């Protein structure tokens, strides 16, 4: 196999690289303290997960995984914690459903352990 054959073979291969993993935003709120500390502690806890992605340049994307945890006692918020864990990924030679799966499932799955 000569050099040009190797380049042609490589041109069709999927390209995937993690360039960066970082915290984009993090916040913790306890809006009803210290009153909440006097109540019986039996909160209802909910967790929301969201993902977004933005194309930065050709084959380079920022993917943001947002985890929001809210604890309530009755109608009062005991605490709210939100983490936006982000990453910059190089993704090449994927289209349509494969690209959507990569950016909306595969990349967020890589970010999740860091956000925990």
Automatic annotation (TrEMBL):
GO molecular function: unfolded protein binding
Domain of life where this protein originates: Eukaryota
Gene3D superfamilies reported in the protein's UniProt record: SecB-like
Entries under Pfam families matching the protein: SecB (PF02556)
GO biological process per UniProt: protein tetramerization; protein transport
Coiled coil: none
InterPro entries (UniProt xref): SecB, SecB-like_sf
PANTHER family: PROTEIN-EXPORT PROTEIN SECB (PTHR36918:SF1), PTHR36918
Name of this chain's protein: Preprotein translocase subunit SecB
Species for this entry: Hirondellea gigas
Origin organism lineage: Eukaryota, Metazoa, Ecdysozoa, Arthropoda, Crustacea
């Amino acid at each position: 196999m000569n050099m040009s054959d190797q380049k042609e073979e490589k041109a069709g291969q999927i390209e995937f690289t993690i360039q960066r993993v970082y915290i984009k935003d993090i916040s913790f709120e306890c809006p009803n303290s210290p009153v909440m500390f006097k109540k019986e502690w039996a909160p209802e806890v909910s967790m929301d997960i969201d993902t977004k992605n933005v194309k930065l340049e050709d084959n380079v994307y920022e993917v943001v995984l947002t985890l929001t945890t809210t604890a309530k006692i009755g109608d009062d918020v005991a605490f709210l914690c939100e983490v936006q864990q982000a990453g910059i990924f190089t993704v090449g030679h994927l289209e349509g459903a494969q690209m959507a799966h990569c950016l909306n499932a595969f990349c967020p799955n890589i970010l999740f352990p860091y956000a925990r």
